[in-house]
Specification:
Blueprint lengths: L19 H8 L5 H12 L5 H11 L8 H7 L11 H18 L1
Length: 105
C-alpha cells in the first residue's frame, strides 16, 4: 500500500554497514545507481532522528522543497527515534515468504 491511499504507512529498513560493499557492487554502472545509493546509506547511518532521516530521504529522491538534512540535524539535535525490537515481526515475514514460495512450487 505504501501510503498511496493517503493514509500513513510504515516501513522498516534493515541495514548493516557490512552490506554497503555488496549494495555498491549491485548498483555500480547502473544509471545513477551509486548516486541514489549514497543518500540511502546516509539515511541509514543518520543519528536515529526521524526528521533528519526524512530530510535525507526526500533530498535523495530529488524532492524540490526537501529540507536541508544538515540544518534539520541542528534543529533536532539530541532527539532520537524509539528503538524497537522487530525480531518477532521479521520471523513472521520470513515464515510468510517461505510459505508463499512453497505454495508456488
Amino acid at each position: 500500500r505504501a501510503g498511496r491511499d493517503g493514509q500513513n504507512a510504515h516501513c522498516i529498513l534493515y541495514y548493516s554497514p557490512k552490506d554497503v560493499i555488496r549494495m555498491r557492487t549491485l548498483v555500480h554502472g547502473t544509471h545513477r545507481g551509486e548516486e541514489n545509493l549514497f543518500p540511502m546509506i546516509r539515511y541509514a547511518q543518520a543519528s536515529g532522528n526521524d526528521a533528519v532521516c526524512k530530510a535525507i530521504l526526500l533530498q535523495g529522491l530529488g524532492e524540490p522543497h526537501a529540507p536541508d538534512p544538515t540544518q534539520t540535524q541542528r534543529q533536532h539535535d539530541g532527539e532520537t527515534t524509539v528503538m524497537r525490537d522487530v525480531g518477532t515481526h521479521g520471523k513472521v515475514v520470513a515464515r510468510l515468504v517461505q510459505d508463499a514460495s512453497q505454495d508456488d512450487q
